[in-house]
Specification:
about 300 residues, alpha+beta, Probable Glutaminase Ybgj, Chain: A, domain 2, 13 helices, five-stranded antiparallel β-sheet, globular, Beta-lactamase, binds glutamine, 2 domains
Amino acid sequence: MQCRSENELQILVDEAKHFTSKGKVADYIPALKRANRNSLSIAIYNPDGNYFSAGDISESFTLQSISKVLTLALALMDRGEEYVFERVGQEPTGDPFNSIAKLETSIPSRPLNPMINAGALAVTHMIKGNSVEERFSRLLTLVQKLTANSSIGYNKEVAESEFETADLNRSLCYFLKQHGLIKEDVEELMDLYTKQCSIELNCLDLARIGCVFSFDGKDPISKEQLIPTHIARICKTFMVTCGMYNASGEFAIKVGIPAKSGVSGGIMGAVPGRFGIGVFGPALDDKGNSVAGMKLMRLLSEKYSLSMF
Ligand code: GLN
């Protein structure tokens, strides 16, 4: 069954919206505190270029951890699978996204996967370029292509706010540097990482990126292969196993859609071979996922039988 009208989507949004009161807006990055806790919006992007939306999809938000999927794609394109996975593992952790615990206990000491902060920092370090500016602009170009929106940029205020307060991420970097997984200056890497997390878009842009992943890296409109098929598949697999942090198992059972969340409240979904989903709801649960956003994804999956399992 397909979603046929915006009314159908609006009914699901109305039902999920009650759950916004159960969550809390992220405040450890001070600039994120200003988000409206009650917002909830969704866009579904179809491969023929048509889309459905409900809620205020003009609201923009920052990618935060959703950017980890895109930096992974770029690092794999830059360095190849062998190089990347010698340095970052492929297994879920069961720990919070910013945990340092398993870095110390896994031998050899390397992050367990690219979707936790430690792994994402190691992956961002791998992006090629002669300066932070050049590396960031390569990432931004990829995002602009995936969204077919050349006006996408980053939110300077959010980037600076995270840069000034990211002591835990800095400590992950120093740990990785001690173990030879990061070689550059930590402040430079933090500059690049906080910028990648602050790339700003709306639900529709996010749904379009999801749609490209649904079609294994191929832009369904231009037919251009923006990300090589095998790399898009790796990214999608990580979305299933680690995309919703330490709630990924439950999400796979209840929703069954490859997805990636971020602490701004965004969720990107890629329904294989069908369409992309972009959701925004800044009220988060204690694991850092959008409470109402996850509920909405579940309702959507149940209504249209979207689970891949
Ligand atoms: N920028 C955030 C951080 O590193 C991203 C985390 C997230 O979205 N889970 O803390």
